[in-house]
Amino acid sequence: MDLLEITVPHEWVDYNGHMNDAEYARAFSMAVEALMEHVGLDAEGRREHDLTIYTLETHLCYLAEAHEGQTLKVKVLLLDHDPKRQHVLFTLTDADGGEIATSEQMLMAMSLSGGRPTPCPEAVAERIAALPQPAGDDDWPKAVGRRIGIRRKTA
Predict the structure, then answer these.
(1) CA separation (Å) from 116 to 2, 137, 139?
(2) What angle do CA 96, 101, 102 make, to 5 degrees?
(3) Of 53, 44, 50, whose CA–CA distance to 112 is shortest?
(4) pLDDT grade, residue 136 (50/70/90)?
C-alpha cells in the first residue's frame, strides 16, 4: 500500500550527488506520520484518543541511490501487531517500483498525557489490522529480520 509520495528536494542531496543517508531516515519518518494519519491518528485523532506512535527500533537498508527531483514512494507492510505495537516494513521505491531502501520498524502506541505505552482504541486497532500483510511464510520479505555483521568465508 502506498503511504507517501515525495520528490527529493535539493537540500536532501549531498556532496556525492545523491540523497544523503540521513534523508532516507527522514523519508521513513514521514511515512510513520502518514501511517498515523491513515489509521486515524492525525492531529485530531491524537487529541481525541490521547495517543501517538513512537518508533522504538529501526533497521534501514540502502539499496540504491536517489537523486534530486526524483519521485519516490513509500509502501507499508504490517508484519505483526498486538494491542500496543506494530512491526512494519516500509519500502522506499522509485516511480517505476524499483526498491531504493527498506526500513523495518517496531512502533509503539503511547499515551500523550501519560507518556507510557497504551493499547490502541478499537477504531485505530481495526485500521492497523486492515493494513497489507504478508500472505504467508512464502511471502515473507527478505529484508525483514536481517542482522548487521561481516560475513566470513569458512575454510
Answers:
(1) 30, 33, 34
(2) 115
(3) 50
(4) confident
Order of strands across the sheet that contains 51-62? 2-7, 71-81, 85-94, 99-111, 51-62
R_g (Cα) of the chain, nearest Å: 17
Asked if 78 and 88 touch (Cβ cutoff 8 Å), the reply is yes
Rounded-to-integer distance, Cα 127 and Cα 112, Å: 20
CB-count burial class (<10 Å; 0-12, 13-18, 19+) for 145: exposed
- Measure Cα distances from 110 to 51, 61, 120, 121 in Å: 6, 26, 9, 11
Half-sphere exposure of 43 (CA within 13 A, CB side): 0
pLDDT by residue (tens digit) across 44-83? 999 999 999 999 999 999 999 999 999 999 999 999 999 9
Q: Which residues neighbour 129 within 8 Å (Cβ) at sequence distance 6 or greater? A: 78, 81
